[in-house]
Design goal:
It is a single chain. The chain has 135 residues and is an all-beta fold. It is 3% helix and 38% strand. The chain has a single domain, classed as Sandwich (Jelly Rolls). The strands form three sheets. It has a five-stranded antiparallel sheet with strand order 1-2-9-4-7. The chain has a three-stranded antiparallel sheet with strand order 6-5-8, with no helix packed on it. The N and C termini lie far apart (40 Å).
Length: 135
Amino acid sequence: TPQTPGMDRAAAINYATAGAQKLWAGTVTIHPDAKTGAHHHGELESVIYVLSGRARMRWGDRLEYVAEAGPGDFIYVPPFVPHQEINASPDEVLQCVLVRSDQQPIVVNLDIAPVEAPEAVHWIDPIHPAPDESK
């Protein structure tokens, strides 16, 4: 599949490099603030290991669940689960190792209306003035 803008994937273990029959493993570099669109990988399972940076994963039928992972954390993506990968940092590259249960680059892009962003509720009192939202 074509590379997502701001995201670079490089194969380390596949049929061409090691004769692997049922696995694909490689590295993924996600530039600051970059993110994928909503998608799933069909019947493939994926495991992501965060080397450096901060990963944010959204998943669910409307991307209603959110979790973050840092260096040393694993993320498991089950088959057919809609998800979105995000570099949670505005200035640090996210580097991961990715392992998939097949060599086929299956990506099913989804047109999902995500859940509403939470409403910004400000604490306003004499110590906490209302923010100037005209900026």
